[in-house]
Write a structure and sequence with these properties.
The complex is a heterodimer. By secondary structure, chain A is mainly β. Chain A is built from no helices and 9 strands. Chain A is globular, with a radius of gyration of 13 Å. The relative contact order of chain A is 0.35. Chain B has strands at about 5, 10-15, 20-25, 30-35, 45-50, 55, 65-70, 75-80, 90-95, 105, 110-115. By secondary structure, chain B is mainly β. Chain B is built from no helices and 11 strands. In chain B, the strands form 2 sheets. In chain B, strands 2, 4, 5, 6, 9, 10 and 11 form a 7-stranded mixed sheet that branches. In chain B, strands 1-3-8-7 form a 4-stranded antiparallel sheet, with no helix packed on it. The relative contact order of chain B is 0.33. Classes of the chains: A mainly beta, B mainly beta. The interface between A and B is medium-sized, with 30 and 27 residues.
Chain lengths: ~110, ~120
C-alpha cells in the first residue's frame, strides 16, 4: 500500500495561514488524497480530498503537486479550534480496494 | 442527521477478561469500519464491512478479536481474552460509498478501553 509521510508537529499563530505538508512518493494513479483531522478526545473528521487539481471547501484548501508525490493542506486563518492532529491518507478510487492507513499525522498547535 | 453511535464510552477490565463494543452507523451507510487507536498513534484499521460481508480483516488479531455485522446495520467488536496491549481507543466509522473518489468516513466518539 502507498504510504504517506508527515512532520510530527507544527506550530502556528492564531489568524495566520498554516501549510501542512504530506509526502506520498509511491502514490498510484488511482489514489485519491484525503485529509482528516482529530480534535482532542474525538474521532477523526473529514476535511478535504482531491486527485490532481487543487481543491477548496469551507474548511481548507488542498494543493497537490504536479507529479502528485506531495500535497499541502492549507488553513487560511488558523483558530484555536483548529488545534488537532491532521492525517493525510490515500484512498484507491477502485471499488473494494485500498486500506485506510492513517499514519501518525501532524499535531498542530495554534498559539493565541 | 444522527452521527455514528458507540457504546460504552469507557471500559476498564482486567487482563484475560472479555469485552464487547457496539457501533450503530449512520442510517443507510453500507460500509462500516473498526479501528484501534493506541495513545500517540494514528488509527489502525482492524476490519471493514460492506453491508454484512467482510471486505478486509487482514489486520484483525483473529485469535482474540472477532467482529460481526448482522443484518448489515449495527456491529459488535469483541476481545476475548484481553491483553494489556489491547488498551486503546476503539473507533467505529461508516461511509455511504466505498470508493476513494467519493468516500467520506464518519467517525464515532470511540470507546476507551483500559486493560489492567
Amino acid at each position: 500500500d502507498a504510504k504517506t509521510t508527515q512532520p510530527n508537529s507544527m506550530e502556528s499563530n492564531e489568524e495566520e495561514p498554516v501549510h501542512l505538508p504530506c509526502n506520498h512518493s509511491t502514490i498510484s494513479g488511482t489514489d485519491y488524497i484525503h485529509w482528516y483531522r482529530q480534535l482532542p478526545s474525538q474521532g477523526p473528521e473529514y476535511v478535504i480530498h482531491g486527485l490532481t487539481s487543487n481543491v477548496n471547501n469551507r474548511m481548507a484548501s488542498l494543493a497537490i503537486a504536479e507529479d502528485r508525490k506531495s500535497s499541502t493542506l492549507i488553513l487560511h486563518r488558523a483558530t484555536l479550534r483548529d488545534a488537532a492532529v491532521y492525517y493525510c491518507i490515500l484512498r484507491d478510487v477502485r471499488t473494494n480496494a485500498g486500506k485506510s492507513t492513517f499514519g501518525d499525522g501532524t499535531t498542530l498547535t495554534v498559539k493565541p | 442527521e444522527a452521527g455514528v453511535a458507540q457504546s460504552p464510552r469507557y471500559k476498564i477490565i482486567e487482563k484475560r477478561q472479555s469485552v464487547a463494543f457496539w457501533c450503530n452507523p449512520i442510517s443507510g451507510h453500507a460500509t462500516l469500519y473498526w479501528y484501534q487507536q493506541i495513545l500517540g498513534q494514528g488509527p489502525k484499521l482492524l476490519i471493514q464491512f460492506q453491508n454484512n460481508g467482510v471486505v478486509d480483516d487482514s489486520q484483525l488479531p483473529k485469535d482474540r478479536f472477532s467482529a460481526e455485522r448482522l443484518k448489515g446495520v449495527d456491529s459488535t467488536l469483541k476481545i476475548q481474552p484481553a491483553k494489556l496491549e489491547d488498551s486503546a481507543v476503539y473507533l467505529c466509522a461508516s461511509s455511504s460509498l466505498f470508493r476513494g473518489d467519493q468516500e467520506t468516513q464518519y467517525f464515532g466518539p470511540g470507546t476507551r478501553l483500559l486493560v489492567l
